[in-house]
Amino acid sequence: MYLIKRNQLIDNWFNHDYTEDSKLWRPNLDIEESDKAYKILADLPGLGREDLKLSVEKNILTISGERKSEEEKTDDGSLYRERCYGKFERSFALPENTDTEKIKADLKNGVLSLTIPKGEKAKAKKIEIK
């Protein structure tokens, strides 16, 4: 049986790297599909438009941004944090039938909503040999 001392357990818990350089933060999201569009909802509490960047390149949608750490000190110098801070990036390969020129983004109450309309599917084309 493997035993761990209580202090070791607490030290391990509190020694997670939740600094601004941390790679631990990946915002939670939902992806929905309807007949007309794909929708991505990302939880980004505390972020504003100026903290986010959205881009599409070669049919890859990238959501990136940064949540800056709030400096907060207590009288005895101790501080416990569960919220993650730092930079994040999420990328998604979009299906070929998306219309990337008409993507709409809205940020409201800490939720980023992306609507990605579907375009017409590429039609099969007969190629004549000359």
Description of the structure:
There is one protein chain. The protein has 130 residues and is mainly beta. It has a domain at 20-68 and 82-117: Immunoglobulin-like (Sandwich). The protein is built from 1 helix and 7 strands. The protein has one helix at 6-14, and strands at 29-33, 37-43, 52-57, 60-67, 86-93, 104-108, 111-117. The strands form 2 sheets. Strands 1-2-7-6 form a 4-stranded antiparallel sheet, with no helix packed on it. Strands 3-4-5 form a 3-stranded antiparallel sheet, with no helix packed on it. β3 (52-57) and β4 (60-67) form a beta hairpin. The longest helix has 9 residues, at 6-14. It is elongated.
Quickly describe the structure.
The protein is mainly beta and 130 residues long.
Please give a handful of descriptors for the protein shown.
single chain, 130 residues, mainly beta, Immunoglobulin-like, four-stranded antiparallel sheet, three-stranded antiparallel sheet, 7 strands, 7% helix, disordered N terminus
Fold topology:
Elements: H1 6-14, E1 29-33, E2 37-43, E3 52-57, E4 60-67, E5 86-93, E6 104-108, E7 111-117
Antiparallel strand pairs: 1-2, 2-7, 3-4, 4-5, 6-7
The CATH topology annotation of the domain at 20-68 and 82-117 reads as: Immunoglobulin-like
| Secondary structure: helix percent | under 10%
CATH architecture of the domain at 20-68 and 82-117: Sandwich
Total DSSP helices = 1
End-to-end CA span:
78 Å
Strand content: 35-45%
How confident overall, as mean pLDDT?
A: 77
Tell me the structural class: mainly beta
Compute the number of strand runs: 7
CATH class of the domain at 20-68 and 82-117: Mainly Beta
Biggest sheet: strand arrangement: 1-2-7-6
Spell the H/E element sequence: HEEEEEEE
The coarse overall form would be elongated
